[in-house]
Amino acid sequence: MMTLILLVFTAICLGMALGRWPGLTIDRTGIALVGAIVLVLAGAVGPDQVRAAIDVPTLVILFGLMVLSAQHAACGFYAWCSRRIARTPAGPGPLLALTVAVAGLLSAVLANDVVVFAMTPLLVTGLSRRGLDPRPFLIALASAANAGSAATIIGNPQNILIGQKGGLDFWAFLAACGPPAAAGMLITWLVVAVAWRRRFTLEDPCARHGLPEHATGLDRAGLVKAVLATVALLALFASPVPHVEGVLLVAGALLVSRRLSTRRILGLVDWHLLVLFGGLFVVTRALETTGLPARSLELLADRAWPLASPWVLGPLTVLGSNTIGNVPLVVLLLQILPAPGSGPLTFLALASTLAGNLLIVGSLANIITVERAREAGIGLGFLEHARCGVPITVLSLACAVGWLRLEG
Fold first, then answer.
1. N or C of the chain: less Cβ packing under 10 Å?
2. How far apart (Å, rounded) are the C-alpha atoms in residues 110 and 70?
3. How far apart are the first and last CA of the chain?
């Protein structure tokens, strides 16, 4: 049975790194789900173990936050932000700074994946029509969304999982991670501005293409409801009310509407990500039953390299985030970290999120941005992204480590 579990786990890691299995169109979600199905049918994990492995509270919180973000998307808020950025009468430098600020701040309280999904095509359209090359702005959009999302425990899926696992306080987490996240946003602007200086305009003035810009207006009443729901959520997270109950209360209130149908709101929920989480929970539990993670920890401890040490956890997180992805990596590490305190968990949240900027495959936000840009007629290459992503990640992680050491 151990051989089967290791084969399935290796196949899943390979699929996560490549984005699919060679010769097939199955994506990361399908890979995690198929792997979990194989292990369940083979008896590697039983029904009771499956129920114990799936972290339902985390999935509920993630679902509720997706409903909140869907409310913002449905009322046209993300589209409005994209159009305002593209139409701002300013040069490339200020426009780049505005892109970074909007993407980072929105991602701190809303799902970063939804932010880049909604904003990418409209940014491509608006910037192309102005004769500006959208590529540096797209790199800044994804990188700032990742950096900004690192500030809070609700900014991205891995932070939600870490916050729920460790019972982390919202405001204490913000105090620890907010400054490094802000530094990451500033670094994003500086690196992209320097790397793309004198190359912000399109080489071919006739190549002003993109998706047609639909004249969808901003639903102000819907936006007011979304803003009030966001404020209420932050207040509930700061109160003694359990996070699960608070998120469900906000999500339930948003689903009661005279303007937006339940079908439309739920259609904007990223069900694929929820299934991905569920599959990974089952697979990592099966791996844990082999005893290999525990023996690996003992081996590291014997060599005076405890996994919770930033000098071990940091490089492992950077490597894992840019191979199998930061979400799968965090799911795995939380299964094997020995009774982590708030310090290692905070560092893991920062490192896994900021490391996602290194390569395109490092985070779902990067992948979504590249795919949405391709649909809009703009190709963003691996090396083009890495030329900015590598220095952004190295400098951001250096700032994060320095800040956390200063904070003790």
1. C
2. 9
3. 44
